[in-house]
Model the fold of this input.
Amino acid sequence: MANPQKVFGPYTLMNRLAVGGMSEIWLAEQRGISGFSKTVVIKTILDYLSDDPELVEMFLDEGRIAARLSHPSIAQIYDLGKIDDTYYLVMEYIPGRDLRYLMAANVAEPKQVPLSIILRVAAEVCAGLHHAHTWKTPEGEPAKIVHRDISPDNVICTFEGAVKIVDFAF
Done:
């Protein structure tokens, strides 16, 4: 069943991808002048949690901190804001499947995943985490960033073979 499209500021929410924890994840399109269009993913804090200052601050911290990270194995954050009463962050759309999906597909149709692929995924995840964990503030101080939810759900393998970490929960 398709979700109805909904205008959300400069974005059109096209399809709800997931709900869980403290947020909803949407596939969206950003539109601009002269036919500009970009597919993005929008994470919104759940309405009933928007009144909790501590949870809102956690959500905003995720966006502020993750936006500073720039690494090929970490999903990029493009925007953080509030429209009406809804806090949101806009991130890179990554066409692919999460590692949990790929692991489940491999169980459904058992076949040996080549060791080289397993090691490549692991190496890319480690490289992204290393970048985050050793990142320094503009003042040169260790930022002490730790991804607190590294799991198969938060590792995306693109259809082109790239590996990206998402959902930096601090």
Notes: The two ends are 34 Å apart (CA to CA). Residues 115-134 form the longest helix (20 residues). The chain has two domains: 6-92, 96-165.
